TrEMBL record:
Gene3D superfamilies documented for this protein: Homeodomain-like (1.10.10.60)
Region (Disordered): 258-279
Record keywords, A-Z: DNA-binding, Transcription, Transcription regulation
InterPro entries for this protein: AraC_XylS_family_regulators, Homeodomain-like_sf, HTH_AraC
Residues covered by the HTH araC/xylS-type domain: 158-259
Organism: Pseudonocardia sediminis
GO MF annotations in UniProt: DNA-binding transcription factor activity; sequence-specific DNA binding
Domain of life: Bacteria
Transmembrane segments: none
Name of this protein: Helix-turn-helix protein
């Protein structure tokens, strides 16, 4: 079976909440294992039947549909046979609005949709599988996400947390916690508490993940040396870069490039989702 990967663009109304869609269908006759390293997004995986195994810091889960919280460690996914479904990459702020609960409760976890006690999310696999094509599935998912995320009764993140997350994202993690606190007008302690509750990681850890995400993209592209990647991304030196790869991905940059070279970190199935662990 030839793999099928169909990208979709969320509507503008979901900007800042949903980054992209990916429809996928692939097959492996033997168990296929992938290393998913942390990134600054949360993968909503809506499989249409077959399951996969996920081994991560939160334990082992076997499911075909789940929403990954923010991670600061790698997840290994394994499947054999067919995988068919849809992935939506949510920002942590989008996931917070969707779930209407603290994101700190999902840190390093990948709960199955049917474990979230949410009938709307639990019904998505069957509803999407029944539709005839990817455009129809993307449209339905957009309607469901918009209804939940933009509803007047939805728990909205603090403006200060939105500002801090956007600042970290724009600088690829290069903004310090003291600077974020000063810019928001909050104490460092208050910022840490509110940010972790609504993003899923403390600001310093989130910045670390975002810096790693930038570095891993450069490493997999393979067009520059590791020393240059380290300098570009603000690591003290190449050994510092190597230590971060071992800590966050579980392998060296060279091994990571061998696994993911030619792909773009941040997407399941066709590439590496990190903290958004798909198949």
């Amino acid at each position: 079976m030839k793999p099928e990967f169909v990208p979709g663009r969320p509507p503008a109304v979901l900007s800042g909440l949903v980054r992209r869609y990916l429809g996928y269908r692939e097959y492996s006759a033997t168990p296929l294992r992938r290393r998913q390293a942390p990134v600054g997004s949360c993968a909503l995986i809506i499989g249409f039947g077959p399951t996969m195994r996920l081994d991560g810091p939160g334990g082992t889960v076997t499911t075909g549909a789940f929403l990954a919280g923010m991670h600061d460690a790698a997840v290994l996914t394994t499947f054999a046979g067919e995988q068919h479904g849809l992935q939506a990459d949510l920002t942590p702020l989008g996931a917070y609005r969707l779930l209407r609960r603290p994101m700190s409760g999902l840190t390093n976890l990948v709960p199955a949709l049917d474990e979230l006690d949410d009938p709307v999310l639990g019904a998505l696999p069957a509803r999407l599988a029944d539709l005839p094509d990817w455009p129809a599935r993307f449209a339905l998912l957009s309607d469901v996400l918009a209804a939940r995320m933009l509803d007047d009764g939805t728990r909205a993140p603090d403006p200060e947390v939105v500002f801090a997350w956007d600042r970290l994202s724009r600088t690829a993690g290069a903004t310090g916690v003291a600077e974020l606190a000063a810019e928001t007008g909050w104490s460092r302690r208050h910022l840490l508490t509110r940010f972790r509750g609504q993003i899923g990681l403390p600001p310093k850890t989130a910045g670390r993940v975002l810096r790693f995400q930038r570095a891993s993209g450069l490493v997999t592209a393979g067009v520059t040396s590791l020393a240059d990647v380290a300098a570009t991304c603000g690591y003290a030196d190449q050994p510092h870069l190597v230590r971060e790869f071992r800590a966050l991905a579980g392998v060296t940059p060279t091994a990571f490039r061998a696994e993911w070279g030619g792909t773009t970190p941040g997407s399941s199935h066709s590439s590496n989702p990190g903290a958004s662990p798909g198949s």
